[in-house]
Design brief:
This protein is α/β, with parallel strands linked by helices. It contains eight helices and twelve strands.
Length: 234
């Protein structure tokens, strides 16, 4: 087992993904990263060995994998080769900081290489950069709500919400903003609403979206009095 850990300092606020797979035998690293992944709207799945990771990958495909090279039993390098062949993005995580080790990691197809000790905040930023570069287009708002930007769908517990094009655009913009509160003026401009009826139209769209979410058993859009709207992430 490769050890080395720096306690995280502050959570990130980046739009990331619905599932990250951590392949690491040290539970303290999982425990340190998991709150940051959850804060960013992602589920952190955990495999303690290459065998466990392969079983997980046979059942579902995460958006990105974090691979420790120094795993018990089979090496993380074996998993890295399989991930590279499958085009699943992955970041190597290791205590080895020498140039040869870094180059070997990239030769295996790694999208990035992180050396222990590291901070969880920096790691999550690196995840976000890799996924943006790879063009990942799904945003997990919470464990129950996901925005699929390619399919133009908002899924609630796996079922698509019946949104109009403008309603989808409204949820998409709020999701991209993470914890940010958007003013009504900003949303009017982003949604390209008619200036003469813009605020009334926005209020109508918000009302309709809220009703559809509530009909699905969840409350997502929150009004910040005197400011505008934000998403509730829980």
């Amino acid at each position: 087992m490769e050890r080395g850990w720096v306690a995280p300092t502050s959570p990130t606020n980046l739009p990331i993904v619905s599932e990250i797979l951590l392949v690491e035998d040290d539970p303290s690293i999982y425990e340190a990263i998991e709150p940051y992944a959850r804060r960013d709207g992602s589920r952190l799945a955990w495999a303690r060995s290459v065998d466990e990771a392969e079983r997980h990958l046979a059942d579902r495909t995460p958006e990105i994998v974090l691979v420790d090279r120094g795993l018990p039993g089979r090496s993380g390098d074996q998993l890295a080769r399989a991930l590279a062949a499958s085009s699943v993005p992955f970041i190597m995580v290791t205590a080895r900081s020498d140039e040869d080790a870094r180059l070997a990691g990239f030769d295996l197809g790694a999208d990035d290489y992180v050396v222990k000790p590291f901070s969880a905040a920096e790691l999550m930023r690196r995840v976000a950069v890799v996924l943006r570069r790879r063009g990942v287009r799904r945003i997990a708002v919470s464990e129950s709500v996901e925005v699929d930007r390619d399919a133009h769908l908002v899924n609630v517990r796996g079922s698509a919400l019946p949104l109009t094009r403008t309603e989808f655009a409204l949820v998409e913009q709020l999701a991209l903003g993470r914890d940010r509160t958007f003013t009504r003026g900003e949303l009017v401009e982003l949604l390209d609403l008619d200036l003469e009826t813009s605020e009334r139209a926005l209020d109508s769209h918000v009302k309709n979206v809220r009703k559809k979410f509530r009909d699905a058993g969840i409350d997502v859009i929150e009004t910040v009095v005197g400011v505008g709207y934000t998403l509730v992430r829980r």
